[in-house]
Write a structure and sequence with these properties.
Layout (H helix, E strand, L loop, with lengths): L1 H26 L4 H11 L22 H7 L5 E4 L4 H9 L3 E6 L2 H15 L4 H9 L13 H8 L6 H18 L6 H17 L13 H6 L14 H12 L3 E5 L7 H11 L4 E7 L9 H9 L8 E4 L7 E4 H7 L4
Parallel strand pairs: 1-2, 1-4, 2-3, 4-5
Antiparallel strand pairs: 5-6
Length: 334
């Protein structure tokens, strides 16, 4: 009898240690080789999207945050789509790991570019300088408001020579420091995306579909006066930068109704004892109507619980929250 109890205790302890270590493997840091393995093995072929998106066109993207923060659990996993609005959601939700899944390979490469810019930018002032290739205004300090930051950069001219220096550092970080095996075409596309920021500047971004401009996106509020943008405060910026430094924001190429990006992400999270707390899907559901059963099955494959939510958005409306579990049940998937 005593031997049976001891064996049971030993087994339970072993299971506890195994589970804890698995969770810790998700939560701490991802090696460069594992980071690239996730990107390359989970991604699907480059897909078609009818609009050129470089920056968000969702001016109301913060409106959902007051309600979301009442019930959202910090930590866990965040999934999203699209460009920089994800950083604002990540800064607020403080996930342990984030996957950003977009049908266009250019968006994956843009997020790799962002990763390098975050890493080379100790603070918000340097980040804007490095992203837009403008010399840092001397009057700005670590305590400058985000509105002051963008007002200052709005009158600073583009600096092509500075852009070339930044491009060299961006590619050096990705290829040499992180040893990511980018192809020559990848480098060409990263260069093209980065130089778009140089040309457009902080106020207007006409080459990105319906973009209100970066300054507008970073200085908007939640409708009640609070600005949650990832550049609004030092703390928000530092949270996103820290995740990038640890390879914990993973960009993937994937169709939401595709065969593996979402499913492999879900399996990875299951294997590491993690739950998807928030999935920002924007209005992707408008584009997967032709493959709805595959999309619904992909969502059903994710590890979620009763508190897991979608953030949905539709043109001309504010974003809204919806239960992922309720969606899965309504589709008859569980």
């Amino acid at each position: 009898m005593r031997l049976g109890v001891a064996a049971t205790v030993t087994l339970l302890l072993a299971l506890f240690v195994f589970t804890s270590r698995a969770a810790e493997g998700l939560l701490s840091q991802i090696s460069d080789s594992e980071y690239w393995k996730l990107i390359s093995e989970f991604s699907e072929p480059n897909g078609y999207f009818q609009y050129n998106i470089v920056t968000s066109n969702e001016t109301s993207y913060q409106y959902v945050l007051p309600e979301l923060m009442k019930t959202a659990r910090l930590g866990g996993a965040y999934l999203g789509v699209g460009p920089e609005q994800n950083f604002t959601y990540i800064a607020a939700l403080q996930p342990k790991l984030a996957f950003i899944i977009d049908i266009r390979k250019d968006m994956m490469l843009e997020h790799l570019m962002y990763k390098a810019v975050f890493e080379m930018s100790e603070n918000r002032i340097d980040f804007v300088s490095n992203l837009f290739s403008r010399k840092r205004p001397s009057e700005l300090t670590a305590d400058s408001s985000v509105r002051t930051i963008f007002q200052a950069y709005a009158v600073v001219p583009a600096d092509p020579m500075l852009a070339e220096e930044h491009l060299k550092e961006i590619l050096g970080r990705l290829k040499t420091s992180h040893r990511l095996p980018l192809t020559s075409d990848d480098e060409i596309r990263i260069r093209s995306i980065f130089l778009t920021f140089l040309r457009e500047g902080v106020i207007n971004f006409s080459t990105s579909f319906l973009s209100p401009g970066y300054a507008a996106l970073m200085t908007t509020t939640d409708g009640a006066g609070k600005n949650w943008s990832y550049l609004a405060t030092k703390e928000s910026y530092d949270r996103v930068r820290a995740l990038h430094q640890k390879n914990l924001i993973v960009p993937l190429v994937g169709d939401f109704a595709g065969p593996k990006a979402i499913r492999m992400t879900g399996q990875y999270l299951k294997d590491h004892g993690a739950t998807v707390n928030v999935f920002y899907i924007s209005n992707v559901e408008d584009y997967v109507q032709h493959a709805w059963p595959a999309y619904a099955n992909n969502i059903a494959s994710l590890p979620v619980d009763a508190s897991s939510v979608f953030i949905r958005w539709s043109p001309g409306t504010a974003p809204s929250l919806a239960s992922v579990s309720d969606f899965v049940r309504s589709q008859g998937r569980r």
